[in-house]
């Protein structure tokens, strides 16, 4: 009996041994990990779904750069307001839930904030590696802020940027981190500052196309300065970016390779998109609204008419189609599309515009024609020429709107040009017998914040930048 | 040599005796003699044939044959005397007379004891003349002073003893300092030391008011009289009229407060809401990953026929010993254990038929659909023109295959000029008369009546030292889908052995095998648009073919042809039997329990259970099946030479999924149980418990599989993940190759429980438990908080002043305490999950949970006041409980802040509070009881009111309030509320309207939290059941009604078409599909809004067409319906007889015929439909035989 007592006592001690108990219970669920090493943080940049979706739906709709059926228009009143340029519509009331532009934009910013906060103390890395990741996160964060401020706030104008509110600036990934809806000037300063701080640490060649390299840094800075109408700096950084990387994709060759399908008017089968991760024009790659494999948006016949005749890139992407009562251009590429990143063609065209604006019309047109040569089929190709700034800019902007369709750039450019007031952008159209117009000074050029964000602002406040 | 043939039989059961003899002969070789009888009586007859044996050997023989025990004093009875006994089916008394007739030993058979005494006790003195032994006399009575007959009085440590006579009197010779043990079945034993007094008068206290009534908590078994908590107990007797196919069927309507798998309402917002199931002392959780890799709680597997009793622990005093899993209540199941001296063999079987029926009583028929399709065409402005635009419009829709139904295609062919008006009318009229042809075809060709068969064989045998039980349940079910069936086998083995006087050992094993085939093709979702006028089998008996041409546009059809793709035709009759999902499951639970008696008061338990389960899913997708053809074609891309590239090999696709579970539970416990000075009864337990459960899931899919050669075609996963089909737009995700998941939960707990009873009248109990788990935060502040409870009970009927003879039992009890609850997949850390990136290579990581260091278990405080009573000789029994169950630190949702980047996510914080207040009443009574006729009835009533007291989130956006009401409960409202808009009737153009926040009727979504109101709860406020059973002679008829009152249900079966994105048209269209036939009452002409609430059908070409119409209509309170209902859940007619016993050796037979789910009464047809009230009843024929 006594022996039995002893046995029980020992057994109890084993089970009651709290020190071992802690180990027993200190078990992190499998399938996930607490990020600690540099590699753990670096991997976050590869999460395309969370961090690299750049949705700009309403901007595309406002520009009438995507086709929407009549039924869908009445289905979604916000789409309809922007599509038909209805200035009387209360878009704030219609934008009554989430909006991917805002939600996914800030989702990426949260990840980049986490990396900026932790990269320099991450383990298993040299200081250079830590700095590199830190710098890449800053560039991506700047890129996201640039999109948001050019969507939800008025465009940058040196005269009033300090007086107008932009979008909430948040720099921490913590729960309940404070945010502040700073002025447009402050936000641009933040963006420029981030990129400038990052540039010294950016690699010439980055790990993947999702990770910004030095060329991306320069190209982004060029894009930002252009938007600030600082053409000198924009030109300067465009040159530096093109020094890093200046390949253009030969769309005429793509056209020839896929001629059989492209030229068959009845075939709506798709051919693979060359504009994916390995597109030679990429500085960095970010998706549009979808991060999965997909086709492009269909576009309106009116919009299709504004492409240059013989544009192989256009012909490879869309084909006319009639379904029921509606005719539109149906997308014929499938795969991935770099809508959210930066490509060389944009930098070529930034450079062209900057040259045009600094009186170097001939050089500007050379830049433009370098691009056009890879786009326009040889049997119709002719160099474009212009004599003055206005002609050059008109030609450059025409090509830029087509080349960068479905990205945020045509929208940014239109706002910039409208603010400048010289080469303004506006549209008119007839729809179901009614005439509609989008004027250059319309309030529609600034999008309202979604109700999901304004009603749940977290540790900060959000004030709409547009009345309706 | 001795020759032993021992036979014992009951009076007159000669045939049984003979039949069993054959068995006896078999067993003789093993044990020489056997015990056999399932009940005893004073008139027991014994057959013995003993030659030249000692009296002691005679005793042993009789004791081993029967449950009788000899009580005698060694000094009085000469046990070494040699005797010869022969008896053939003689009464026991006659046999005893043969043995003791010539001696001075008297014998008396009292209950199961044979008491031997000398006729003239001689008082002996020792050398000093002191009385060595004296005669002690006395009387034993119960608490009411009634003498007890047959109480065993034994000198402790000896076999010397006697029993009391009819006057409760006894006399026994004992020495001073001897301890007399008084024991009597159903009463607490008492020990009295012999002192100077020669007379000992004592009272024995009943263990419970009802003989043998005990409460099993899983940690201890205590007499019900001593409990203070809210327990509800079911015995197998209570549910024998039920088909024993699922635990839920047994509990529903029989446990007051158990409703829809939940006890006393929902107390958690995000954690588990299901009770904890405990089988034979061990918690058993069946958590599994479902097809979407989410976690699911299932009812545990067991052989339901083995259930001896089910005890449901509802309040803190009852359940808080289960610590962190106690808040939702605990269901404790004990399985049968053979009683000493018994051998039980029973067999049961039942056959259930559930006829197939697809309820069409509220569904649109062919004529309705044709009328609506005509309406679509008539109202379509694009078809009105005569300038040829109509024809090109119609041709274009046909060419692009926007509308797939036969009626729409006929209409478009007419407008396109392909058929004449009379041809069109002919076609439509013919389709319109088809009624519910598609559903009829399904019933005839694709479905069948369901049959459930269930068989059980149980065997139990026990002796004084060992008890063994075994049972086997086999089930074979065929389901309504022709290729879906299931069979399972459950084997339960259980053995208890008394190894020594101080050591008991229990071993048990449960093994469950399950095979299931599931049809995956659903004819109600066949992959093409069908209407009620469609067919599965054509008039000429050929199978219906949905051709690719009827579904795809011209470009796609041309590509199928050009690139030589596999056929895209669907033949539903061929698809039915293809791609079956096969599940093969194995589960085992084995346990060992040791009980060491350390002293009279102390004992020690150690128990260990190990569970292991394997679930295998395999699905071989036939290469001929549409699913495979579609998959392979979907991934076809084009080469630069414009040829098809088949990225996925054409062949069978094999999917294999495995799920492993292992769990163990180790518990050690010290028990103390002592009765001091006749009035103080103390029991204390203290112990530690370790629990571990692990779940691993993995699956993989192989392509181009050959099940004969067991080979597959390797595919390049990285390339496939980059492929996007050129013709059909197919693509793949990583889950199409392989998936892995794992869940590990560990707990370590220390617990204790104490109870004190004074004089059988006053009880106090308390319990305390600490749990630590790997689930919770790192913050010790939260980990170290204990769950605890305290309770008090007062057995009023035991008070001396209480003397109402009509009241047999009256008990008042109160308890208060805290139970816990967990959410199984919460973690306190910032964690990221990692997987490979197929686009740019390397590993990608995503943050899946932000840090939540203050995560802890949810705590639920319950106060419970209860009264138990039994009146009129136990003819009326009842329990009334009133409770207040308050949940705090509930894991509540917070909507992530969009600016913080978490706008699409919710995260959980321990900050919610809610209460469930309720009353539970159960009454059962024997209304009439005569020898031949009896009538019993019972009623259960539960009232539960839930209220959210605190939560610091408000739905940030209106639609979250509507769609996820439980994520954004409103303070002061019921947690289970349905939220919606207030209905404002139809507009003058037939559009649905609701009131916005300003009280204006609008046809657009108010999109405003202020406009959203609470329209009641989805959980019944009042629920319960009524059961009654009448028996006359061998027949009994019983019925169980279940009712639920005061709750609401959202109508999801609307008289309105849904809308969906049509890839073919590139936009949204209204789906003209079978739906609620009330669409016949829709608004058609102005003025209709005065007498109908069914909106006008708004087709996609209509200028009023809007997303909002459907959303406001479905959210309006006109579609929130009163869900109160009454169901006749079970009717059972049974015939039971023991008449077969003499002839067939069958002790009793019960044959029962049941009808389950007989009818449902609900507020209206829509509600009844939503509640499943139109399902056909199940018909059950059952047979139960006891050998």
TrEMBL record, chain A:
InterPro entries: SusD-like_N (IPR033985), TPR-like_helical_dom_sf (IPR011990). It holds the Pfam family SusD-like_3. This is SusD family protein. Transmembrane segments: none annotated. GO terms for cellular component: cell outer membrane. Residues 23-226 form the SusD-like N-terminal domain.
From TrEMBL, chain B:
It holds the Pfam family TonB_dep_Rec_b-barrel. It is a multi-pass membrane protein. Signal peptide: none annotated. One of its GO terms (cellular component) is cell outer membrane. Keywords: Cell outer membrane, Membrane, TonB box, Transmembrane, Transmembrane beta strand, Transport. It comes from the Bacteria. Residues 225-330 form the TonB-dependent receptor plug domain. Gene3D superfamilies: Carboxypeptidase-like, regulatory domain, TonB-dependent receptor, beta-barrel domain, TonB-dependent receptor, plug domain. Its main location: membrane. SUPFAM superfamilies: Carboxypeptidase regulatory domain-like (SSF49464), Porins (SSF56935). NCBIfam families: OMP_RagA_SusC, SusC_RagA_signa. Belongs to the TonB-dependent receptor family. This is TonB-linked outer membrane protein, SusC/RagA family.
